[in-house]
């Protein structure tokens, strides 16, 4: 992609009411645009990052046997009345000329449970898990955290169905590991803790993935020995001790919930009277788990956590492009060489953003840092004399001079 | 994918209120499930078809320089008041505990125009085109056409911006051809006509892509000489003559609008006072075009048009899988051979659905026709004696016996 043609320019102005670091960086880098509090548009660069996240999540959910579906945002009142969640605060309801009442799903237990019930009767059909990447709506009063807490946002929600608690436990562990793989690939694994949190009335604890950041609204207590954490909300129940080793040496940190997994047991299958026929002919309760991760929140967390004073430092698998090719100066030789490298990279199927704009070196390098593509190749008269380009990784301070003949080899080793 | 594990079974029952052929076939094949009138869930097979359609559309829009973005369903009242479209019937409005009024976008001119305006000032920034694949909401009173007319549906909407009518005209022709490519790949090209339709107050005509089907709500008049059509609604303006050759030899057909392209001119840029500075320093009007295609409607149209009494006949590029591998009989030899072929196809990266269920031959072959995957490979004792399998294309009556040694070669030629 040529940057001169890219829609959504870098900017040094952000809306006055935009207090969150993630939205400031993402707006300045040309990734998102703010429509109103809690509602953002994804510009081409941001849409590209979202697609990368979608693909990672699809791969990891498919790997544990999740089957992708797509449910609707529009929901029937009667299903949500059954579970007692129709009148919760976050539910947006629809005013229309139709004689029915609809709400907009802010989670999809009330959708997926009767759906599963329609198709599944026998123990032979279990276990199975369904997921979707879909837009959620929540009437959030506080919506000041950029894309960390949206009124409309993209979420992956998976639901698993089992004939026993043991089988649910087994899948829960697989899902736990799948989530760690997602955070690993998103560059957040080091700062993300598997965290004991409230389980509601139906199971002792749920588990959150909490990523350390000052922007987080949660307080967690980390046991460094076990590498896990406890959400403040359940510290009392645990007598302020690590549930795994019993140690009371815990350190408190601020964090944001970037994922959560929950043994719902029969919390939602019961209201729909969703049972199965077991091999002994008996009708038994269906056990259920749910596994959520906000795609836009994950993107916002990366912007919060993996950034420096110059801009975002995208991890390789989330970066909108792998290479930022920047030409400096307007000499014909530089322009020709840069175009030549651009074509060569495209032929090699390397995702490249080519800054072909007629801007000063200062502006171009500053923009490049702001956008945060992992590897930058600078073509300028200075190094062209030596038939070379200057390469700098966004995450490192130093740069290297690489001969253009050896560029392909360099990229094969460094991308 | 093993069919025994696939969520969403084929069924011979459909909801009593489901009168449309597309929804009946798609529900029976396990592609979609009906939540309520105009609102459907996409099960794994249906989600897979939607993804294929998404990819085709992305490729063809990218090929004409479209840049993918993602705007929100939630919309600000003030932008829609400006264009006079806030109080139209199809707009669903939100009731919530927030002190703001929101609507749900049923088209996105009111979203994309102020967005483009924010980032673009000079003639140098033109032309450009933005598109999204996004969920639309419409308060449709008539919602009896299955996924052809949804209250919630997936749409690709592209918008182009230009400094002159001539430049808009030029892009319009490129978009026209891109649309034909989409219909070609979706298997609908032969039955789809470029159709003159009403242009509203701002341009003489818009153009629809009308696909012939009894399920269509439109009446079009085809000029076979030119290969174009005229929507009934503008026949009067055209004095019942072909606008291209002047012939009055037209034949009337029922059709469904599967796409439309529209020169909006300054219909939406004016209310936002979106102007650009030209090379002569003057402020001038921005010209705009829009290009829509409903993904779910396209899928429904394929189900209507490319089907026979047995079920859907998916075109290659839309089929959820390329091969349906079906084992018949429960003999160990058959099971082992089928598993072996399944693994081999997976290793060759061929998308395969493997019917490994313990059902009768009659049920399995009937289900296979209903699902409609282009190529079926049957493994049974009958042909295994000859070290062969039986292959049948869904679109043809005859089958072939192919030696298992030559299967790879056969598939390389026939997929």
* Range of strand content of chain A: 25-35%
What is the overall pLDDT average of chain A? 96
Oligomer: homodimer
Structural class of chain A: alpha+beta
End-to-end Cα distance of chain A, whole Å, is 18 Å
Task: Give the overall silhouette of chain A.
Answer: elongated
Describe the 3D structure.
The structure is a homodimer of 415-residue chains. With 415 residues, chain A is an alpha+beta fold. Chain A folds into two domains: 3-308, 2-Layer Sandwich (BirA Bifunctional Protein, domain 2), CATH 3.30.930; 323-414, Rossmann fold. Chain A is 28% helix and 30% strand. The first copy, chain A, is built from ten helices and 23 strands. In chain A, the strands form six sheets. A five-stranded mixed barrel of chain A has the order 9-10-13-11-12. A five-stranded mixed β-sheet of chain A has the order 20-19-21-22-23, sandwiched between helices. In chain A, strand 5 and strand 6 form a beta hairpin. The longest helix of chain A is centred in the middle third of the chain and has 21 residues, at 165-185. The first copy, chain A, is elongated. The two termini of chain A are 18 Å apart. The mean pLDDT of chain A is 96. At the A-B interface, strand 1, strand 2, helix 2, strand 3 and strand 4 of A face strand 1, strand 2, helix 2, strand 3 and strand 4 of B.
């Amino acid at each position: 992609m040529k940057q001169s043609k890219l829609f959504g320019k870098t900017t040094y102005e952000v809306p006055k009411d935009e207090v969150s670091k993630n939205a400031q960086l993402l707006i300045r880098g040309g990734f998102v645009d703010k429509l109103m509090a809690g509602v953002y548009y994804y510009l081409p660069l941001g849409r590209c990052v979202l697609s990368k996240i979608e693909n990672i999540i699809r791969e990891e959910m498919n790997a544990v046997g999740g089957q992708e579906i797509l449910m609707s945002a529009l929901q029937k009142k009667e299903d949500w009345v059954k579970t007692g969640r129709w009148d919760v605060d976050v539910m947006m309801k629809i005013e229309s000329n139709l004689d029915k009442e609809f709400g907009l799903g802010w989670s999809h237990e009330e959708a997926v449970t009767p759906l599963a019930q329609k198709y599944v009767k026998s123990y032979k059909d279990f276990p199975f898990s369904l997921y979707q990447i879909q837009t959620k709506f929540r009437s959030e009063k506080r919506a000041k955290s950029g894309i960390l807490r949206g009124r409309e946002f993209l979420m992956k929600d998976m639901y698993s169905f089992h004939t026993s608690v043991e089988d649910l436990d087994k899948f829960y562990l697989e899902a736990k590991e799948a989530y760690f793989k997602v955070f690993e690939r998103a560059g957040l694994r080091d700062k993300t803790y598997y965290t004991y949190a409230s389980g509601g009335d139906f199971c002792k604890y749920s588990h959150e993935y909490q990523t350390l950041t000052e922007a987080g609204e949660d307080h967690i207590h980390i046991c460094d020995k076990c590498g896990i954490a406890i959400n403040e909300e359940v510290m009392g129940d645990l007598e302020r001790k690590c549930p795994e080793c019993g140690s009371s040496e815990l350190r408190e940190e601020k964090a944001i919930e970037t994922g959560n997994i929950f043994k719902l047991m029969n919390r939602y299958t019961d209201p729909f009277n969703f049972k199965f026929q077991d091999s002994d002919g008996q009708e038994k309760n269906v056990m259920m788990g749910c596994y959520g991760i906000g795609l836009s929140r994950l993107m916002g967390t990366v912007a919060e956590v993996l950034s420096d004073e110059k801009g975002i430092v995208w991890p390789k698998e989330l970066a909108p492009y792998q290479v930022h090719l920047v030409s400096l100066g307007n000499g014909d030789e530089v322009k020709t060489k840069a175009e030549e490298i651009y074509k060569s990279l495209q032929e090699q199927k390397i995702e490249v953003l080519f800054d072909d704009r007629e801007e000063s070196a200062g502006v171009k390098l500053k923009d490049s840092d702001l956008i945060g593509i992992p590897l930058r190749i600078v073509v300028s008269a200075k190094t062209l004399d030596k038939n070379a380009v200057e390469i700098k990784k966004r995450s490192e301070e130093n740069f290297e001079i690489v001969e253009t003949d050896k560029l392909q080899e360099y990229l094969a080793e460094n991308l």
